[in-house]
Task: structure prediction
Amino acid sequence: MRAEAENEYVDYVRGRLPQLHRAAYLLCGDTDRAQDIVQSTITALYRHWSRARAVENIDGYVHRMLVRRYLDEKRLSWSRVLLTDRTPDRTAPAQRSVEEQDAVHAALRRLPSGQRAVLVLRFLCDMSVEQTATALGCSEGNVKAQTSRGLATLRPLLGAEFVGGLDERN
Result:
């Protein structure tokens, strides 16, 4: 890779790394696995940087790579082994208590991986329906259907008033 392209790659990854870690953690619920997923994603991105930098929506391209890495890892048998039940050593955002965050993460882990990916990208990574569809490589209708099903599953787990705020963004 040329020095100019490598500098672009480094700048891009440096700017997006916190978002990628957050999305990966929200998908898998484990800090170590999230780091593995992100590392695998940015390694693949490095290998395909010439193709990636030419796409119109590079963030969608990278999020699609991240979700695919997560889904590929999910299929591996060792990923079903729970190594720890601790939450990451991070401070909670001011708008949600630690208990509420734990409840959301536990509820998300109970969803099928497709619904979880859609809800994480839409509501926790603040992506639009269009951006989520691009990132996952599916139709906007599929994103809307998975969102609806995921929210319907979360309602009994979290309570209707908690999920109600998410419904307004649908």
Remarks:
- The two ends are 42 Å apart (CA to CA).
- The first helix runs from residue 3 to 28.
